[in-house]
Input
Amino acid sequence: MVEKRHIVVVGLNHKTAPVEVRERLAFSSEDTPHVLESVCQCPSVNEILLFSTCNRVEFLLATQDVAKAVEAVKDFMAEFKKTPLPSFEESLYVYSGDQAIRHMFRVASSLDSMVVGEPQILGQVKDCYGQACDHRTCGVVLNRLMHRAFSVAKRVRTETGIGDHAVSISYAAVELGRKIFGELEEKAVLLIGAGEMAELAVEHLVNNRARPIFVANRTFERGLELAEGFRGTAIRFEEVRDYLKEVDIVISSTGASDYILVRDDFKGLMRARKNRPLFFIDIAVPRDIDPEINRINNVYVYDIDDLNNAIQENIDERQQEALRGERLVDGAVIQFRRWFQGLDVVPTIVDLRAKVEEIRQRELKKTFAALNSVSEEDRAAIDRLTAALVNKILHDPTIFLKQSGYKERKPLYVDITRRLFNLDEGNGGKSEG
Amino acid sequence: MNLLFALTIICYLASSLGYQGYILFQKRPIHRMANIVLWVGFLSHTAVIGLQCVESGHIPVQNLHETLSTFGWAVVGVFLALQLKYHLMVLGALAAPLATLAVVIASMLPRPPVELAPLFKNLWRSLHLGTLIVGNAAFAIACSAGILYLIQERAIKDKKPGFFFRRLPSLKLLDSVGYASLIVGFPMLTFGVITGVIYAQMVRGRFWSWDPGEILGAVTWLVYAVLLHERLAVGWQGRRAAIMTIVGFAILLLTSFLFFLR
Output
C-alpha cells in the first residue's frame, strides 16, 4: 500500500514576522529556480512551490512525510540565507491538510493580505506558480490546488465587494477626483513639495491619464528632479498662485509650518478659472491649505484626516465583504478535500468497483425484466458470468494501482483513473477546468 | 386606448420601483430591467398619444388630463434621450416617478369633451402648449439633475462619503446633464412664450395683459435666460447653477398652475 500524500505550507508573513526578518529571508526571482530544484531533491518532498513577496515567504509542498519535509525546508532556508534557524523559527507557521489548502486559497483571494482585497497578490501568486511550472516542480496535486486557488480568487473578487472601494490614501484621492471631475484624463495636476504619499498620489493620477503635471518645490533642483520622474514641468515655488488658474488638482505636501495658501489667494481666481472645479489634496502636517478654502464654490479641500476618514468606512466594508469571501473559501476547501482524498488508492479502487458493480446490477435487472422464461438456475449462471467478467476486467487496473513501484506518479495515475471512469460525478470531476 | 394607458401607468410604476431598487442595491440587472420596462411604457404611451392625435386631429394638450399625460410622456422621452448619451442611470430614480405621478394624476382627472376652437387658432394653441410641455419636461430633468448635484456636492464638501457618494455619479456628469437639459429646454420655452403672446393677441386682442400668470411666465424665462447666459459667458457651473435650475423649475410649476387656473 502506497503512503498518502499531504499538502503542507511552511512560511512566514507580515503577521508573524517583522519586516527585518522578512527582508532577510525573501528570495529573489533569480534565486527561485535554484531554490525549487534544491528543495525538490529532498526525498521527502514530491512537489514544491515557492511564494516570495514583500509580505510573505512561503513554501507549498506535497509530501509523504510531513515532519521530514518541514525539517528539510527549515534547514534549507537557514543554510541558503545563512541565518541561524532559531532567529526566525518562531515566526514560521506550518499548516497541513485542510489548513494548508485554506491558507493557499486565502492568500490567492487576498484575504490574507496586509490590505485585504488588494488586487496585486493574485498576479504574484500566478507568477510564482508559473516559475514552479517552468521547472516542473509542480505535480498533479499542486497543479490542481493552484488552479482551484485561482478560480476561488476570481469568485471572491467578482462575487463579493472585497476590491470595490479605495482603502489607501492615494487611491482615495483618485476616487474623489473621479467623483468631482468624472474623468481624470487631461486634468492638470500640481504637486507642491514632495513626499512618498504625495508622489504616490501623483503617480496614481498619472496612471489615470491626468496631465500635464507641474511640480513646485522650495529648491528648484529637487523640483526638476521630481518633474522628470512624472514627465512634468518644474515651476518656481513663487509661481504657485499663478498656476492655480490652470491646474485642476493640487497635491500639497510641504514642510511649511504655516498655510501656504489662504482664502485671500482665491479672490477673483474662480472667475478667472471660469468656475472650473479645483480639488486640493493636502497631505502635509501641519497643513498647507487653509481649510476655509473648502467653503469656496467649486473648490474642494481634503486634508490627511479627511482622506483617512473616507477610507475608514471602506475598510470596514471590506471586512464585511471579506467574511463572505471566507465562506466561499470554506466551500472550495471542502470540494478540494473530496478530490484530494479520492487520490488515495484504496478509496479509488472502492469507488471504481462500486461504480462497475452498480452498472452490472442495473443491466442485469434490465435483462431479467425482458427475459421472462429464464429459470432461477439460469439467472444465477448469468449473474455469475457478469460478476466474473467484471472481476477479470478490473483485476489488472486494481493491481496496477496497488503496486508500489512508482510512488512519484501515483497521484497522477489515481487522478487519471478517477477521470477515466468519471468517479467524481458532479463534484470534483465536473468543476475541474 | 384605455388599456394602453393602463399598461403605460403600470410600466412607469414598475420602472420607478426598479430605479429606486437600483439605487438601493446597486445591481446592474435591476437597472436593465427598469430601463427596458420604461422603454415599453414609453412606446405604449407614444401609441396612446398618437391615437389621441388621430382621433381628435390635434396634439393632445386640450385639457388638463391630456396635458399632464403629454408632460409625463415628454419627461420620459427627454430622460431616455439623455440616457442614450450620458448613461446617467440614477437619474431615472427621479424622472420615472415624476412621469408616473403625472400619468397617475392624469388618469384620475375627468376627460371633458374637447371644444375645438377654429382650426388656425387651435393649431397655434397646440403649438404653444406642445413646445412648452417638452420644454417643461427638459427643465424637470434639469431640476432632477440639479437635486442630485446638490446631494453629491454636499457629500463631497462635508467629507462624508456615504450612501449617496457611492451611488451618485460625478459632479461633472450631473452638471453636464443639467446643462444639456437646459439647452434643450430654453429654445422650447422661448418659442412657447412667443407663440403664447401671439395666441393672447388672437384670443384676447392684446399681446400682454399683466396678469400674474404672464408676469410669472416672464420671470421664469428671465431666470433661465440669466442662467444660460452666465453658464455660457462666465462658465457658471456647479452649485449655484444647480440651485438656479431648481428655483427656475419651481417658478415654472407655479406659472403652469396659474395658467391652468384661468
Residues 117 and 123 of chain B are 9 Å apart (CA to CA). The two ends of chain B are 29 Å apart (CA to CA).
